[in-house]
Amino acid sequence: MNQVMNFVAQSAEGQRVLGSLLGPAPPGLSMGMSGAPPGGPGVAEAPVFQAARQGEVAVVERLLGPTRGTELSAHLSQAGDTLLHVACWEGKSRLVRMLLARGHDVHALSRNKSTPLHYSSWNGHSESVKILLEADADTERHMQGGDTALHQAAWNGHAEVARLLLDSGASMSATKEDGVR
After folding, report:
1. N or C: which end of the chain has fewer CB within 10 A?
2. How far apart are CA 173 and CA 25, in angstroms?
3. What is the structure's pLDDT at 137?
4. pLDDT given for residue 178 in this prediction
5. From CA 87, how far away is CA 35, in angstroms rounded?
6. Ranges of the chain with pLDDT below 50
7. Residue 50 near residue 18, CB atoms below 8 Å
8. How many CA atoms are closer than 13 Å to the CA of 127, on its beta-carbon side?
């Protein structure tokens, strides 16, 4: 098993095979673990991001190897998301826990200055929101445009997530850059 995982993690052919098993990547996502785009549009998403989207915790752990701490936040998809952002967007709470246990920055920023908490709140993933709040996620962090996680949850009608954020001290009076609450 170790040889197979090393083959996948270190070879283009291994990554292609894993990618074919995990299914197609969303259009435009294609950054590998190095942090630099491997190619232009239409390039397959890196296997670690594909596994994260599927919630395959064991596969992600294996592909990450000994990577911990701030190194985790340095790995970005072509869309500018960290693995924790991907896990939160998809609502993969077991993966969220694993990444935080490895020291992933709970306040990592995406391309539009969103935190993982913004992503979980936007999609109404209450279990992921709980985990992030337990890890001291900042409920008052503003993304590009000024939204907080509470704005994101409220905008999409996610009452349970909004209640979790409010119970954790999120401000109901936070304003966006345009002055709207």
Report:
1. N
2. 39
3. 98
4. 66
5. 18
6. 1-12, 14-40
7. yes
8. 9
Closest CA relative to residue 87, chosen from 78, 79, 100, 96:
96
Please tell me the predicted confidence (pLDDT) of residue 34: 34
Q: For position 152, what pLDDT does the model report?
A: 94
Residues 127-140 pLDDT 10s: 999 999 999 999 99
Q: What is the pLDDT of residue 173?
A: 87
Q: At what angle do helices 126-134 and 116-123 cross, to 10 degrees?
A: 150
The alpha helices in 23-69, defined as continuous H runs, are 47-54, 57-64
Those residues with Cβ within 8 angstroms of residue 21's Cβ, 6 or more apart along the chain or in another chain: none
Distances (CA, A) of 5 to 2, 10, 155, 164: 5, 8, 41, 38
pLDDT of residue 108: 97
CA distance 177 to 147: 8
CA distance 165 to 126: 10
Rounded (5°) CA angle 50-55-58: 90
From the CB of residue 168, how many other CB atoms can be counted at a distance below 10 Å? 18
- Give the other-Cβ count within 10 Å of 137's Cβ: 23
Nearest of 95, 9, 99 to residue 55 by alpha carbon? 95
